[in-house]
Specification:
The protein is mainly alpha-helical. It has a single domain (16-195), classed as Orthogonal Bundle (Arp2/3 complex 21 kDa subunit ARPC3). Helix content is 71%, strand content 3%. Strands 1-2 form a two-stranded antiparallel ribbon. The two termini are 23 Å apart.
């Protein structure tokens, strides 16, 4: 990727580097969904914590809300491809609600992570950690919360999964996001979208 590229004048414009970031992190989302790397075994009732949302978090931070949304959309399509029967089952066969649950939280992961980073951009490592937290909560609480609000899932089933999975997913997101964003920030001489004034 070109590290000497002229910065954008607006976070709503996409540069060549932004498109490359969307492609690389979108592809990473697909790889994670298609391999065991996307579901890390953990000692709780679900037996796995997801890392699928992490590329959208990082893409949002380094290239802005649109790129974050694009990577989240790729994640949503990938999740739908692999898990649509599960979404449909939890939504009682309601296709519209299943699509909302599969797509809306995933599209928002990178968007909300970007804004979380921007709020704390003067402290880059803290900002990355908080963005990892926000992106993870958007994914986990968004998907499982919508199952409760729109679907047939019972709170007695979903709440224990939320309480046991979310801490593992937050830890994974923070441990991965902080060094990756730091490395990209250093490589691009601080020219990442979340750090721009």
């Amino acid at each position: 990727m070109n590290t000497t590229e002229t910065p954008r004048t607006s976070r709503w414009q996409l540069s060549t580097r932004d498109l490359a970031v969307a492609g690389v992190f979108g592809a990473l989302s697909i790889v994670l969904a298609a391999t065991p790397l996307g579901m890390i075994p953990v000692p709780n009732m679900s037996a796995a914590a997801t890392t699928l949302h992490i590329p959208a978090i990082i893409a949002g931070i380094v290239s802005g809300p649109i790129v974050g949304a694009i990577v989240g959309l790729i994640l949503a399509f990938t999740s739908w491809y692999y898990y649509s029967p599960i979404f449909l089952n939890f939504m009682g066969g309601n296709l519209l609600f299943a699509l909302i649950d599969a797509f809306l939280p995933r599209i928002l992961i990178g968007v909300l992570a970007y804004y979380a980073y921007r709020l704390l951009r003067r402290w880059p490592n803290v900002a990355s950690g908080v963005a990892g937290l926000v992106g993870t909560l958007t994914n986990s609480i968004g998907v499982l919360g919508l199952l409760l609000l729109l679907g047939t899932a019972e709170a007695t089933t979903m709440v224990p999964v939320i309480l046991t999975n979310v801490p593992f997913e937050i830890i994974l997101a923070v441990v991965i996001t902080v060094p990756v964003v730091a490395a990209l920030r250093a490589a691009w001489r601080g020219q990442i979208a979340g750090a721009q004034d």
